[in-house]
Design goal:
The protein is an alpha/beta fold and about 425 residues long. About 35% of the residues lie in helices and about 25% in strands. The protein binds NADP nicotinamide-adenine-dinucleotide phosphate and L-homoserine.
């Protein structure tokens, strides 16, 4: 198709909510690439206002006359497209609803809001026949949500397995590569600006849980919220856990897992540290990078890899959505909305079916191994590998199981804790990404 003259194209009015790490990069790229965007969209993208909290702060590259603290008034100013990169639940939710009800399309990076109350926002977008796009909300720059929503729409996804939090992946990589313990790598991640002064959302898995809910909703055509996600962070992972994993040929990763239950009527969505075999592609995802591994019936395994955070990488995903939404605006229609027709039942962690590594400190006496194996057998948990480390008072059994439900594993652990020969259950970790699972 020949390019229209850029003098002749119409203008779309854009409001930007937030000018922090992501927002300033969005504003910069909108300005730097203005002619390219106009040619790609068939309309000029004009930034007409930028809402912030503190109007007095200097904003690199953003004209002072665009800055306002009155976001609601900005949204009522005949806006075609709103970019929400302020974060948090309120006022972001009210402002997005105001924009959608005004007939503006919205692009957002707000995983917390989408995972808490996406249904309300998608319903408003559909009612008003406008777009609500959110590629940047999961795994930053990585094109992931559109491939899941569009490219894999002809397939049946069974499982999504991902490293979706760069801060914790950085920390676990450092623990793995240097032998340092959790508090040392947290201090280093904070000094480098990867982890916040209050690192809770990252290290306790909440950021990954929001992303897991969004991924599960798309992959399984079902509305999943953050309350449906089982969450365990990395704050209890010790240098000893990492070493034990290394000795068995594994690396510890914080994984977001969303999977169809065997009866195909439910989904289990979980975030927790897990042992991944060194041979699995996710094991080589180091430092702050993200990667998501999707298993679908016809496609087989597909992996997405790249930068999951940072101003410019996240702005790249935001602007991809802006171009897509703007093209729809120019043609006077909205893209295909959210699909939740499958309406699968979100099931709790007890329904999860995976493998486990259990580290037990035991009495080093004849018959102990047999008695322990009997506890696993009577709870229908099949043992794959057993190894003893140490002897006497310092005897440890490392047991790796075949697949079993979390419910069966919990019963096994409860029974093991009752055994006099089991001095303590030192650690338990799920094992993901092995052949056959
Ligand atoms: P940020 O640096 O904290 O910036 C937030 C911006 O929003 C600031 O400009 C702030 O104004 C403004 N803001 C906050 N509350 C406001 C309010 N009530 N009224 C008006 N303005 C308000 O955040 P960010 O890192 O850019 O993240 C933005 C969004 O992108 C979040 O949803 C985040 O989860 C998502 N995201 C971020 C990344 C990343 O790498 N940073 C990656 C993926 C997704 P002031 O500047 O005046 O304080
Ligand atoms: N804090 C997140 C991370 C970035 O460490 O990956 C934004 O989601």
């Amino acid at each position: 198709m020949s390019a229209p003259s850029l003098d002749a194209v119409p203008t779309l009015r854009i409001a930007l909510l937030g000018a922090g790490t992501v927002g300033t990069e969005v504003a910069r790229l909108l300005q730097d690439n203005a002619d390219d965007f106009a040619a790609r969209v068939g309309a000029r993208l004009e930034l007409v206002g930028v809402a912030v909290r503190d109007a007095a702060r200097a904003r690199d590259g953003i004209r002072a006359d665009l800055i306002t603290t009155d976001a609601a008034a900005l949204l009522d100013d005949n806006i075609d497209l709103v970019i929400e990169v302020m974060g948090g639940i309120e006022p972001a939710r009210s402002l997005i609803l105001q924009a959608l009800n005004n007939g503006s399309s919205v692009v957002t990076a707000n995983k917390a809001l989408l995972a808490a109350d996406g249904a309300t926002l998608f319903a408003a977008a559909e009612k008003n026949n406008v777009d609500l796009y959110y590629e940047a909300s999961v795994a930053g720059a990585i094109p992931l949500l559109r491939p899941l929503r569009e490219s894999l729409a002809g397939d049946k996804v069974r499982r999504v397995l991902g490293i979706v939090n760069g801060t914790t992946n950085y920390m676990l990589t450092k623990m793995d590569e240097t032998g340092a313990d959790y508090s040392e790598v947290l201090a280093e991640a904070q000094a480098l600006g990867y982890a916040e002064a209050d690192p809770t959302a990252d290290v306790e898995g909440l950021d990954a849980a929001a992303k897991a809910a969004i991924l599960a909703s798309l992959a399984f055509h079902t509305r999943v919220t953050i309350d449906d996600v089982y969450v365990e962070g990395i704050s209890k992972v010790t240098a000893a856990d990492i070493k034990a994993a290394q000795d068995m040929g594994f690396v510890v990763k914080l994984l977001a897992v969303a999977e169809l239950t065997p009866d195909e009527l439910g989904v289990v969505v979980r975030v927790h540290p897990a042992m991944v075999p060194r041979s699995h592609p996710l094991a080589s995802v180091r430092l702050s990078f993200n990667a998501v591994f999707v298993e679908a019936d016809a496609a087989g395994a597909v992996m997405f890899y790249g930068r999951g955070a940072g101003g410019a990488p996240t702005a790249s995903a935001v602007l991809g959505d802006v171009v897509a939404v703007a093209r729809n605006k120019v043609r006077g229609h909205a893209g295909y909305g959210e699909s939740d027709y499958a309406d699968l039942e979100p099931r709790g962690i007890s329904a999860a079916n995976t493998r486990y590594a259990i580290n037990l400190q035991v009495a080093d006496q004849p018959g102990v191994l047999a008695a322990i194996a009997q506890v696993f057998a009577s709870n229908n948990v099949s043992i794959q590998v057993v190894r003893q480390d140490g002897s006497g008072d310092e005897a440890f059994l490392l047991v790796r199981t075949h697949q079993a439900t979390d419910a069966a594993l919990s019963q096994t652990l409860a029974a093991l804790r009752e055994m006099p020969a089991v001095r303590q259950v030192v650690g338990v970790m799920r094992v993901e990404g092995e052949v056959g699972h």
